[in-house]
Write a structure and sequence with these properties.
It contains 17 helices and 12 strands. The protein is an alpha/beta fold. It folds into 3 domains: about 25-165, no CATH class; about 170-270, Rossmann fold (3-Layer(aba) Sandwich), CATH 3.40.50.1980; about 300-495, no CATH class. The strands form 4 sheets. A 6-stranded mixed β-sheet has the order 3-4-2-1-5-6. The chain has a two-stranded antiparallel sheet with strand order 7-8. A two-stranded antiparallel sheet has the order 9-10. The longest helix is centred in the N-terminal third of the chain and has 36 residues, at about 20-55. About 30% of the residues are buried. Keywords: Membrane, Transferase, Transmembrane, Transmembrane helix.
Length: about 500
């Protein structure tokens, strides 16, 4: 089935339909880019200026050591270095609207540009026998990188807050089959910080004949009337989900026809929960291909991860010893029973182990669990209930801030758990696994993970499983560090815990 844009006249007339939302998007994006440019300049000039002051013990301007007969002071070197640094940041597209505000590509380009600059300096120094002061460069590079990253993070946090309130978002029209469009629309809706707000959906002819909404968005037509849907919805982006109705030629014509309107075209490859580190774009026979690396199960079981887990757990236990003692006293005095609660959990490869927690419930609470499961729907997987009557007052506080889980660091030291990993589960939950869910058992369970920073107990069982499988397949040490940092914020705010 061929694609064609519904025309109400000449394409030039339709081009005048550029929406107010589109103009607003260009406005806030331009303002955001200007702010990034200002903070980048402050970070770069501040770094090279600080390097000069610290290396030469004050505002002195010693000459650069090079073979030419005329003299150049380090003030000029700092100005040239800063200008070149900012030029490379611009040349690498670190402030383009497509990468700013979300994802890791912005930081990758920023780091690449910075390292390229100092690599060029090293080559120039070797070729032309220029002797840069090593201390000067050793201060300028890390200071500049830290300043650049801090500035980008500060603006990103502000942008995330604005997007959560419905501002600074691109309005997007989703095109695709009902199932694919529903998944894409739900993904955009569930993550407002991605910067997209769904304003309509177009589905193949006949697929939406008896459907008025898909994924919470109104069906505005079929995939042959995209231009009319753009005009009606005021969308400034069109996102094409997986569909058999639009081939390469139709997508190319769609891009041509949307270009005069200033409307962006986004094409989803039809894969989910694949980390960017596993994706590689390349052209094969003139066609854009997305190469997906194999899942990273083996790396998630590496010695490097085990060594990190042991060192991190040891540091936490030693530094939090007074807190552990205070919690133990509070648990003992608040209700009769032992201080610790030992629960059998299923570890890697289905091996059971005794997980240690501070007791947060009344003694014998396990005897009532089957009655509670039946009372709240009978789903044994990821069973949690708000206002659980078995939880003690002290236990409720400990659970809110995950303090009851601190003794699990001893499980990490014993090699039974990891700092970051899938959610540890009991035997009844594992017994309910299907073939897909059992892949969670390929790695050690963790104290925290994607489930912990994405909603904790508020997550549905399906979302919890999806996040755990995504972690298992996409593991990296950078991901572990990022999840630990995010966990600190989530736990401090007490979000989604009960």
């Amino acid at each position: 089935m061929s694609y064609e844009l519904t025309r109400g006249g000449d394409i030039d007339a339709v081009a005048g339909v550029r929406s107010l939302r589109g103009a607003q998007r260009v406005g806030w994006q331009s303002a955001f880019v200007r702010r990034l440019a200002v903070t980048d300049a402050i970070a770069v000039f501040g770094a090279v200026g600080t390097a000069q002051l610290l290396r030469f013990d004050g505002p002195e301007d010693p000459p650069l050591a090079w073979p030419l007969p005329y003299e150049i002071g380090y003030s000029v070197v700092s100005l040239v270095l800063a200008a070149g640094w900012l030029a490379l940041l611009h040349g690498y597209g670190s402030r383009t609207p497509q990468v700013i505000g979300a994802g890791s590509e912005e930081f990758r380009r920023l780091v690449s540009a910075s390292l390229k600059l100092f690599g060029v300096l090293a080559i120039l120094a070797l070729l032309f026998r220029i002797e840069f002061a090593r201390g000067y460069l050793a201060i300028a590079l890390p200071a500049g990188l830290l300043g650049l990253i801090a500035g980008r993070l500060a603006w990103r946090w502000q942008l995330r807050g604005l997007r959560a309130d419905g501002h600074c978002q691109a309005s997007v029209l989703v095109v695709g089959s009902p199932e694919a469009a529903r998944a894409m629309a739900s993904a955009f809706t569930d993550k407002p910080d991605s910067g997209y707000r769904v304003v309509g959906v177009c589905v193949p002819p006949g697929a939406g004949a008896d459907v008025e909404t898909v994924g919470g968005a109104s069906v505005l037509g079929d995939d042959r009337s995209v231009l009319e849907a753009v005009r009606r919805s005021g969308a400034d982006s069109v996102a094409v989900a997986a569909t058999d109705h639009l081939g390469p030629a139709e997508l190319r014509r769609m891009a041509w026809d949307l270009d005069p309107l200033g409307v962006d075209l986004i094409v989803a490859p039809g894969v989910v929960d694949i980390a960017g580190i596993r994706l590689n774009h390349r052209l094969v026979a003139g066609m854009p291909m997305l190469h997906i690396d194999r899942p990273r199960y083996g790396r998630a079981k590496s010695r490097r991860k085990a060594a990190f887990d042991f060192c991190f757990a040891a540091a936490v236990v030693l530094s939090s010893a007074p807190l552990l003692l205070a919690i133990a006293v509070a648990v003992k005095l608040s209700s009769p029973g032992p201080v610790f609660y030992l629960s059998e959990r299923i570890g890697r490869d289905g091996t059971p182990f005794r997980m240690i927690k501070f007791r947060s419930m009344q003694t014998g609470a396990d005897l009532a669990v089957h009655e509670l499961i039946a009372e709240h729907g009978g789903n044994p997987v990821f069973f949690k209930v708000k206002d659980d009557p078995r939880v003690t007052p002290v236990g409720r506080f400990l659970r809110r801030y995950s303090l009851d889980e601190l003794p699990q660091f001893f499980n990490v030291l014993r090699g039974e758990m990891s700092v970051v990993g899938p959610r540890p589960q009991v035997q009844r939950e594992v017994d309910a696994y299907d073939g897909e869910m059992r892949r969670r058992l390929l790695v050690k369970p963790g104290l925290t993970g994607l489930w912990q920073v994405s909603g904790r107990s508020d997550l549905s069982p399906e979302d919890s499983v999806r996040l755990d499988l995504s972690y298992v397949e996409n593991w990296s040490m950078v991901l572990d560090l990022a999840l630990i940092a995010r966990t600190i914020g989530v736990v401090t705010r007490g979000e989604g815990a009960y």
